[in-house]
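Model: You mentioned two targets. I'll fold them one after the other.
Researcher: Yes, keep them separate.
Model: Target one:
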Amino acid sequence: MPVIEVPQISLEEQRKYAGRHAAIVEGRIVSSGDTAREAFQKAKELFPEKKTDEIGLLYIPREEMMIL
């Protein structure tokens, strides 16, 4: 099973995707959605050649949920 590289998420991306699920392909966020399923389906449409285990999912918490 391939290892999915979790991208370094900028503050701008954190704000953009806060409270959303993000799909990751080749170390970068390629889609997002209200649910993990939605984010995955969008990524699969963009990258139909990718196997299921080559698309990572990550939840980006809202700022008030972040513990720094």
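Model: Target two:
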Amino acid sequence: MYRKDRGTIRDARGGGVLIYINANYVPLINGNLNSFKCETLWIKIITGMNGFFNLGVCYRSPNAPPEQVVNLFMVIKEASKHQAVIVGDFNFPGINWNTLEYNTVNEEVFIKIVQDCFCRAMLCIARLLPARSVCPSVRLSRS
């Protein structure tokens, strides 16, 4: 189990991010990515002799200060320079992933980062999908 409590990022009680790793994997804390001041936690999963991928969990509070949002965007860009699996709650409710329409500047920037990093967005909103349903997948292409 790896965790990063919210209190390490800013003065706040409760919250943070957590990753459980199966004992069959070889995980290493990614100190470079974890140095960004935002609610993210990054683990390198070793896949072979010189191979690895970055596993990251992210949380963006709806009222996150601007510097945390900037750091979140920077760490996603940095993590995406290698193979990466990035999951989390980014709290961008105004993004329409079918049309790529958005309501805020931060949502626009987030869409651009996802596109620029050739990320594949897996959209699964538990409240809206019945139990055991398959999450729809959207492939974002570069504009």
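Researcher: Noted. Anything on target two?
Model: The chain has one domain: 2-139.
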